[in-house]
Amino acid sequence: MSFHTDPAYGKVPSWYELCDSVDTIVFDDSFADYRPTDCTAWFCGYYLLKNIDGMENLHTDSVKSMNNMFCACSNLYNVDLSHFNTENVEDMSRMFYFSTGFSTLDLSYFNTKNVKDMSEMFYWSYYLGTIFASETFTVESVENSTDMFTGCTALEGAILYDPVRTSARYANYVDGYFTYKDPTAIAPATRTAQDEPIVRYDLQGRRLTAPQRGINIVKQGNKTTKVLVK
User: Fold this and answer.
1) What Cα–Cα distance (Å) separates residue 216 from each residue in 16, 152, 205, 212?
2) pTM score of the predicted model
């Protein structure tokens, strides 16, 4: 699916109804002149989505809300957010809600000085282990951060995940869940789920050296699925 602007159909196409059939989204060059003010639920529910290309054409300097933007993106392992201008965003609630594809998020370019709502921002993203942030990720304006980190059981920064420490109080890299990253630094190569070895087990938990007939438990990275082999 390609995001584009077309005067005949308005500035933004209607795409939400395609959420169960799209695995790649492309922001083409025509989108670069568009300035959205609301990105609420833009990719929410796109559980087959694996790639978002052309993010440099998505200009967010006028955006006020990113509520539910990547909610339930269970197959999206990496997303380039380095072009995001978040200086005017006020609502990031549920932005990565139940986004179980991510093991790492790089938010080092985020400036959150005007964000008021971070409630459930990372809620139940239980494979999320690392959140990179810089000094521009602040919570000075936050009024609601209920359950911001609830269910992020793999998360580790300055401290390990603690189910009673789930508010924006821990949205930092000094004594919270973030890991510091200088946004101007060269990023290391990112290991994706596809890079992880595939391991197979039978229903009794015994490791298999090759697929066997019947139900196989297939584990790759943090993903575990049942596969019927005939």
Assistant:
1) 34, 28, 10, 7
2) 0.76
